[in-house]
Predict the 3D structure of the following.
Amino acid sequence: MSVTEECLKALRGLGLTGYEVKAYLSLVLRGGLTPSEVSRESQIPYSKVYDVLRNLEKKGWIQSEHARPVKYYPKPPGEAVETAQLKLRHELEFSAKTILRELQPLYEREERREKPEVWIVRGEFNILARIQEVCGRAVFKLQVAAPVLSETLTRMFESTFEEGFRKGLEISIMAVKNADLSLLKRLERYGEVRVREQMFGGGVISDVKEVILVLGEDDPAGTVGIWSTHTGLARFAKNYFDYLWREAQPVRGP
């Protein structure tokens, strides 16, 4: 009878080594065996089989019969697994207590220090990933300024806006007049879109508590983003967005 790889992995997950798994399976399939028989059946080197069997017995998977030669018998899998679970729970509880006892005071001491509220994000793809995260965390209101609107950026906005739109998120999108009209129309499905002649930089404001501002350069690799959870900066960005929004115009066209 063969044993699946899933079962072998599960046995190793309960703390058995490769040799211990082989030895236990040999005993389950064949019943009581002497160390030499276990070595032969499981192809464990004879020089190692005694240590393997002693460890298995210590871990609660097998038991021995004191005879000459000594014989080993498997414990029922249900009983062995229960013993292993109890041992693992005890080890996890001990590890958790040790970690909390030593690291929690260090963490709490670190928490008292002032944390930075402004981060610099460099590189086009890193900035796009951060924009997607900020958009995804919005609950009530999302304001987006996109001075450059590409197919890639539009697809990212669509995938991010979809869930927020279903939840009733208020989305305002501002772009420049020379942006691709078809891309603007696609974004109109999710919120109000307006355009203006030009914008100096772009960004996203989420719930007036998180903002990422993007400072563009001719070389995309040199693009820099400023990401912040500082409510004062987020409110300043919102006020500036609102100022530009009032002068922006609805998208026209078919």
Q: What stands out?
A: The radius of gyration is 32 Å. Strands lie at 62-65, 71-74, 118-122, 141-146, 170-176, 192-196, 202-206, 210-215, 224-228, 249-250. The chain has two domains: 1-113, 118-250. The first strand starts at residue 62 and ends at 65.
